[in-house]
Amino acid sequence: MTRATALSLHELAFLCGGSRRAVLTGVLALCQSGQLELNGTRVYRLDDGWTELEPVERAVLDVVPVAGVQLSSLIAAVERSDAVRATRGRLAALGLALRWPLTGLTAAGRRVRREAAVMPAEGLRRIALLGPDAIPDAELRRAFTSAPTSTPARVQPDAVDTLVVRMRLSPYSTSRPA
After folding, report:
1. Hey, which residues does 39 pair with through a beta bridge?
2. DSSP 115-155
3. Domain interval for residue 120
4. How many other β-carbons are positioned within 10 Å of the β-carbon of residue 19?
5. Is 175 a member of any domain?
6. Is this structure's pTM higher than 0.85?
């Protein structure tokens, strides 16, 4: 048995494409098992009765409300989850990824990734290896390739109010608030 075949689906996805690809395989695995439905760029939860799930898949289900969520928001939220961090931690423990806070793969990790790239793979393992371009369904592939890579940062309104108050109370200003 090679080291690449010993990795779980999500570990292999993380090794070959990072946290975003690990989340992608989690979403697709749940769609394939009938627990999630992807309609355009919106993801809906259909069934939550499954107990034997990989940690990344459980994190995906935890983020998806019954009313659904945008795919880009789902990916961004799960990428920051404990499950994805734990997946990377397992790769680091195996000597395939660098330890925190560094990112990237070790020489052994790059070797296993090259080994995995030449292995014949089908289904979700192929998508874990090659990314969303390996998704056979064009509409589904488009949903994952057109999803933004990150959600834009939002300014919190109360932070803006605090900034304005600080500016008004500056010792260098000549006017005091009424």
Report:
1. 42
2. HHHHS---HHHHHHHH-GGG-SSHHHHHHHHHS-SSPPP--
3. 3-149
4. 21
5. no
6. no
Nearest to 81 by CA among 54, 104, 106: 54
Q: Which residues pair with 37 in a beta bridge?
A: 44
The number of residues making up the chain comes to 178
**Averaged pLDDT, 119-142:** 90
Residue 102 lies in a domain: yes
φ, ψ for residue 100, nearest 5 deg? -60, 150
Domain count, the chain: 1
CA-wise closest residue to 86 among 59, 118, 49, 47:
59
**Is the pLDDT reported for residue 164 higher than 60?**
no
* Among 100, 101, 87, 116, CA closest to 4: 116
3-state secondary structure of 2: coil
Give the position of tokens 């459980």. 58
Q: CA 164, 170, 171: angle at the middle one, nearest 5?
A: 170
Helices 19-32 and 82-93: angle between axes, nearest 10 degrees: 110
Residue 168 lies in a domain: no
3-class state of residue 56 by DSSP:
helix
Place of tokens 């509409």: 139
